[in-house]
Predict the 3D structure of the following.
Amino acid sequence: MISRKLAAGTALIAAVGGLALAVQAQASADNVAFPENYAKGIKWLVVDKADAKQVNDLYATPEAIEAARKDQPMPNGTVFTVVQYSAQLDAQGNPVKGADGRFVKNEIRGFNAMEKRTGWGSEYPDTLRNGEWEYRAFTADKKPNENAKLAACFECHKPLASQDFVHAHDKLKEAGSVKQ
């Protein structure tokens, strides 16, 4: 009887802890405002996503590219923005490719932002924390996407601690110093 109560109590604590973690993962998302000036940054990568039938344009601040080139952490205030476009589809529902072999962009589907600020992220447990980074998703009309599962952002970037939680870090080093 005692072991059943202990097991039930442990399960309840784990469930509450899991709920708290899920709430925490979204708790500071509102720190990240829509990055209105993202297009003044540098488009450093374009990714065709066949499974989602979309094209992602990735923008960074020039300071982020300089830091990457010097193998330094991203500076306070760094913002990475992903602009998600649907791909134009042919009659069979497959993405249309342009002369360059890339998917042809259609409409904006949404935006994702990753921003670093001194002191951010301290409320997250070590298992989830991504340094001082916060994440936020936005709809095509630039409003916060309240349905986004931001914990997935933390989980996806977590293994990249050695490169300041940034995907395609080597490509960032290679980015041009002028807007592409």
In short: Residues 3-27 have pLDDT under 50 and may be disordered.
